[in-house]
Amino acid sequence: MKDFNEYPKTIKKTARYILQDVSDINKLEEIQQMINQCINKKKQELTNESR
Questions:
Q1: CA torsion sign, 9 to 15 to 16 to 22?
Q2: What DSSP letter does each residue of 1-51 carry, written as one string?
Q3: Which of 10, 12, 45, 50 is deepest in the core (most CB within 10 A)?
Q4: What is the pLDDT of residues 13-50, one digit of tens each?
Q5: Which residue from 40, 21, 18, 42 is spatially nearest to 31, judged by alpha carbons?
Q6: Which pLDDT value is given to residue 23?
Q7: 32 near 24, Cβ under 8 Å?
Q8: Domain range summary for the chain, segments of one domain joined by +
Q9: Rounded distance, CA 45 to CA 9, Å?
């Protein structure tokens, strides 16, 4: 895994926001769902490209 400082600024800001500013479990679950959807979509695209 990469060192945390090697990731793009937006990823670091998102992680810091989650760790420091999210105080509602519902908000955290919404963020998790959105991120998981994006990751799954990209994984599907990459899988389709490699075929």
A1: positive
A2: ---GGGS-HHHHHHHHHHHHT---HHHHHHHHHHHHHHHHHHHHHHHHHT-
A3: 12
A4: 999 999 999 999 999 999 999 999 999 999 999 999 98
A5: 18
A6: 96
A7: no
A8: 24-51
A9: 24
For the entire predicted model, the pTM comes to 0.81
What is the rounded distance in angstroms from the CA atom of residue 48 to the CA atom of residue 40? 12
Q: What number of residues does the chain have? A: 51
Report the pLDDT averaged over residues 2-8.
87
Cβ burial of 13 (10 Å; 0-12, 13-18, 19+) is exposed
Q: Please say whether the beta carbons of 28 and 18 come within 8 A.
A: yes
Looking at residue 46, its amino acid is: L
